[in-house]
Each structure stands twice: as C-alpha cells, then as structure tokens.
Specification:
22 helices, five-stranded mixed sheet, 3 domains, alpha/beta, Beta-Lactamase
Length: 645
C-alpha cells in the first residue's frame, strides 16, 4: 500500500473514530437526559394527580372520571389505582402508542424509566396507591431526531475535514513527487539534485540523495580533470594546444576511411617560413609564446568549421583537415584569409611569414605518406620564395584525379538521390557490439542508400554531404527509424541508430520521432540513439531535451566517437546516458600506447561511476581486443570483433 493511501486510511480512521465517538456520546447523553425528564414528569404528574384525588369525595365513578380526564390530557402508558392491600381498583392502559423511530433504533437504545407512585389520602387514612407511567414514544421521537441531526452534522464535518485534509495532505506530500522523481532519476543513472523540502523526514532523504549525486559528480569531475591533463599531454602539442603529429595523422586516417563520414577531404598545411629567424631574433621562449598565439588563432578556425580538425605536424608545419567534400583550393583560400585577419588582430603579421599547401585526400590515401610528399614540396618551394604577399601565389594546390560521381555529375546525383529518398530505397546493415565474453549488447545499424537498380549501395559517408545540402537528413533519419521498427517486429535484438545534428535540434523532427516511438514502447525500448560527440556538445541544450524526450519511451542514449571532449563527460551526469563509444583514435594500437591505456582505464572508471557502459569503436585486431578487456571496457565493435554464438 502506498504512503498516500496509508495516510488517507489513517485520516479516515481518525475521522471515523472521532465522529463515531462524538455521535455515540451525544446520543447516550440525550437518552439519559430524556430518561431523567420522563422520570421527573412521572413523579410530578403522579403527585399532582394523587393530591387532586385526595381532595375529592371517594366515589369511584368520580375518581375514574377524573383519572380518565387526566389520562386523555397527557401522554401516558398507564395509570393505575390500587387499594392499601394491593388490589387494583381502577386502571387505564394505552397499548396503541407508536413512534417515528424505527424498531431497530428502539431496541438498540431502549428508554427505561421506572413508574412513579403517590399515596391518596382520605382524611388521615390512606385511601390507595396511584401508579403512573408516561408514554415514551415522544422521547424516542426526540432521540431519533437528535440522532439524525447529529449524524448529519458529523457527516458534514467529516466531509469538510476530508476536503481540508486533502488540500493539506497534498501540500505536505508535494515534495514527495520531487523525491520520487529524484529516486527514479538515480535509478536511471541521472545524478540530479533537488531543493531540500521543509518537511523534516523528506528533507533528510533528499539531503542524503543530493549528497550522493554531488559526490558522484565531484568524483567524476576530479577523475576527468586528471584524464584531461593526460589526454592533452599525450595527444596534443604542448606549445600550440593543437593535436600532435601522431594524433593528427591517426585521426585523419580514421576520418577518411570511416563510413560515417565522407571518404574524401581537404588537407591544408601552413608552413611557417620565418620560424628559424624569429627564434634566433627573440629567443626560444618568446618564439614559443608566439607559436602559442598562432595555435590559438588556428584553434579558432577549427571552431568556425564544424568538420575541421587541426594539428601541429612539425616545428614549422600546422595542418587543418576538412572531412567533407569541398573544393580544397577554396578552403585553403578561406583559411588563409581568416588566419590573416586573426594574426593581424593579434599583431603576429610582422613576426611570421606563411606558405599554404592544399591537397585533396581520398579513402586510399595514407596521411603519413601524404605529409611526407607535401613536406618535400614545401621544402623545395620555400627555397624559391624570397618574398610573400597576400594574394594566392603562396597557396600550392596539389591536384589529384579521382572517379567521383558526386563532384563530376552533381545535378544527376542530386536528382537520383532525391528520387531514392522519395522511393525509400534504403536498408540497414547490422554490425555487432559485443561484451567482454563475446555476447551481443546490440547491433549498430548504419544506413545504406541505393540510387537506382544498377548502382551499388552507398554508405552514409558517401551521401551525407548531399543529404545535408538538400535538407534531407531529417527525412532520412525518420526513414531509418521506420525501417528499424519494422525490422524489430521480426527479431528480439537491440539496435542502435545514428541521429544527425539537424535532427536533435529540430522540434518538428523530435515530435515526428516521438509519434513513431509511442506506437509500441516494447519495440522502442530496444532502440539506442547514437549522437556524435561533437554534435552533442555543440548543441548541449538541444541534446539534453532530446534525451529527456526519448527517455519517455525507455530508449537508450549513446555518445559516439568520443575523444577530445571526454573531459566534458561530467556535464552529462543528469542525462542518464547508457553508452559512451570511444573513438578509434584512442583505440588504435592501444596495446602499444601506455598513455592511452591509462586514459581509457580512467575513462572506464568515470563512466561506470555514472552508470554508463564504455564501448570501444573500430577494434581491428585481436591484440587490441585483449588489451581493451584488460582495461575494463564493457564492449567493443569493429572488424576485429567476433560475435560468439
């Protein structure tokens, strides 16, 4: 029985006992009063009647007439005259009296009054004994009316107490709703805090749960702060704050080959030509300060372009990689102009001279080999440049040939793509995510799209740019959900689906998504929605609102491609995240990377403290899988992962 029902039961019991006690006491008091008044009436009437008869002549006819007149004038049950020796001389009886009170009431509360007696004198002699008993029917009527009146008022007062008690109880128990919501949130690994209520008992409970939530959050923030320092130290350049050489090369290789992104991109390398002369002129420390400022300006460029990563490849080379299908020369011009404005504002133009090189990269390109090729070209070019200006002459574009239906036949591709979406020509692939024992956690289900009957299925990376340009991502996401829900009716698997940035930020899309999910919650709770790390943190408020909405249907939530923003994981403490999928850049060759081992182990500890499962993406080798298990990761996915039957 719930607390509210128990409190109501207690309130009703108190009302019943108090009202019932008052009713019984009032009725019994009224009964005793009526009995007393009847006895007094009997005594007074018997005395008066006996005194009157004593003054009459002792003629029986006269006495009987006088008794009859008195009997008819009052409410009497009987009047009896007996001689001194006990013989009945005259008697009047009323056996036809009736009361409005029901028989059960009369039997339950009988009015017992003794008959009154009085002596009749004849001079100095006793003439006889007069016995008088009043009719109690009017007393029963009065008692019955009193009982009904008391019952009615008891009912009215009881209802009034219930109404007032209901309002007071609602006010007293109002904080209980917050307590229940907080308890449910903790059960879902959402470590929220609420305001402490005034009620002492609730306050103690809330205080304890708030302390738990704050403790978990504090511990997570401390551990994440430590991990952030280690992540920065092992994967980022100390001077500029950009990715170091190894991390940048590894990240570009992963992006260019990932089916989640376009399998091509634009690489721009900025060669600082005057670094040696600046170093000689101002000294090592001052040069590093200037490079730090330059790194800050480049990082600002990274924030301007959502699909750009930056890194420092060598002392004088800074690189930017845009992992979408764009004109690499135009991109290099944009970078040059933006950087020129930024360094001019920070007074670096008089210190450094730059040479820009851009190259289109494709899926088969190796980043390290590309950089060596580019580095050779830059070395040769730098020797021939004596003076640089702000036009395009210091942008070197390395041309590359690639069969690309998107770039060569844009209009045709767009038309076929639009038609394929309208015809719902999509399907889902199934890639297992397994736990440490090889058992299935869920299937990752990336979407595939077919332009026409004669073409091959395209991965998301091959059409995502076009879909975004044609504003079709939300429509594709809903098609993916419809297909997934239909597939779930034929199996018992759990699956994960990718959601685009345009989806989580569009209220209409979320409404359409919710409409589909609420049709069958048994199917909905087998779906996990994955949002890229960058998308989640760039649209944090929208992401939180999205999580809150889909959690209504018991769906799971995951952040995928987690890497550089793992230090912000504590910001998700109140969302009830189910999974965090760690990017390949931290996973690749983990068996040989001691720094990343420590980072992953710490990340697992933080994730587990928040009730989140940590999953490794893109596992390629058995050695990686073994190491990841030892580090405490809960699951993994990738070409090197095998699902145990």
């Amino acid at each position: 029985m719930s607390l509210i029902k128990q409190l109501w039961f207690a309130i009703l019991l108190v009302i019943l006992l108090s009202s019932g006690g008052s009713f019984i006491l009032s009725v019994l008091t009224s009964k005793a009063y009526l009995e007393q008044q009847l006895f007094i009436k009997n005594t007074d009437n018997a005395t008066v009647l006996a005194l009157s008869i004593s003054h009459l002549e002792k003629d029986m006819t006269t006495i009987e007439l006088f008794m009859a007149a008195q009997f008819d004038a009052g409410h009497y049950k009987s009047i009896r005259l007996t001689s001194p020796n006990g013989e009945t001389v005259a008697e009047l009886l009323n056996n036809s009296y009736q009361s409005r009170a029901p028989n059960w009431f009369i039997k339950l509360l009988p009015i017992r009054v003794s008959p009154a007696t009085a002596n009749i004198q004849d001079g100095w002699k006793q003439y006889g004994m007069l016995t008088l008993e009043s009719d109690a029917s009017f007393a029963y009527d009065a008692l019955w009316d009193s009982a009904k009146f008391i019952s009615l008022w008891a009912l009215v007062i009881g209802l009034f107490i219930c109404i007032v008690g209901s309002k007071l109880l609602r006010k007293i128990l109002y904080p209980l709703n917050d307590v229940i919501a907080q308890a449910e949130a903790l059960g879902q690994h959402r470590f929220i805090t609420i305001q402490e209520p005034k009620t002492a008992e609730f306050k103690a409970v809330v205080k304890a749960m708030n302390k738990l939530s704050e403790g978990v959050r504090h511990n997570a923030e401390q551990e994440i702060g430590r991990l952030k320092g280690m992540l920065t130290e092992s994967n980022f350049d100390v001077v500029t704050g950009l990715m170091n050489h190894n991390n940048f090369v590894k990240s570009v290789d992963i992006l260019i080959k990932s089916e989640d992104y376009s399998n091509e991109g634009a690489l721009v390398i900025i060669r600082v030509l005057s670094l040696a002369s600046v170093n000689q002129a101002v000294g090592y420390q001052q040069t590093n300060m200037l490079l730090s400022k330059l790194g800050l300006q480049v990082s600002l460029l990274e924030k301007q372009y959502a699909s750009v990563i930056t890194g420092r490849l060598s002392g004088s080379d800074i690189a930017l990689f845009h992992h979408e299908k764009i004109d690499n020369h135009e991109f290099a011009k944009q970078i040059k102009n933006s950087l020129h404005n930024l360094v001019r504002e920070s007074n670096l133009t008089h210190m450094f001279e730059y040479l820009f090189l851009t190259k289109k990269m494709y899926i088969n390109d190796a980043t390290e080999d590309t950089y060596q090729q580019v580095n050779h070209i830059l070395n040769q070019t730098a020797r021939m440049i004596d003076n640089l200006d702000t036009n395009d002459s210091n942008i070197i574009n390395i041309s590359a040939q690639q069969n690309d239906i998107v770039s060569d036949k844009v209009e045709t591709f767009n038309r076929l793509f639009q038609n394929a979406v309208d015809q719902k020509s999509i399907k889902l692939e199934y890639f297992p995510v397994v736990n440490q024992s090889g058992g299935l956690i869920h299937y990752e289900c990336p979407v595939r799209l077919k332009l026409d009957e004669n073409s091959q299925w395209l991965t998301a990376g091959e059409f995502i740019t076009t879909a975004t340009q044609l504003n079709l991502m939300n429509k594709i996401d809903l098609l993916v959900l419809d297909t997934a829900l239909q597939n779930l009716t034929t199996n018992t698997h759990h699956i994960s689906l990718n959601i685009s940035a345009s989806g989580i930020t569009d209220p209409k899309f979320i409404q359409a998504l919710s409409t589909r999910l609420k049709v069958d919650t048994a199917l909905s709770q087998r779906i996990c929605f994955e949002v890229p790390e960058y998308t989640a943190y760039q649209n944090l408020d929208a992401f939180k609102a999205f999580c809150k909405q889909v959690k209504l249907f018991k769906c799971k939530i995951a952040i995928e491609h987690a890497s550089v923003e793992v230090s912000r994981l504590s910001e998700m403490y109140d969302l009830g995240l189910d999974f965090i999928k760690i990017d390949q850049s931290l996973i690749r060759n983990i068996q040989h990377n001691e720094a990343n081992k420590v980072i992953l182990n710490g990340l697992c500890i933080v994730a587990h403290s928040l009730g989140i499962l940590a999953i490794a993406e893109g596992v390629k080798t058995k050695e990686e899988a073994i190491t990841l298990k030892q580090l405490g990761l809960d699951g993994m996915t990738g070409p090197g992962v095998t699902l145990q039957s």
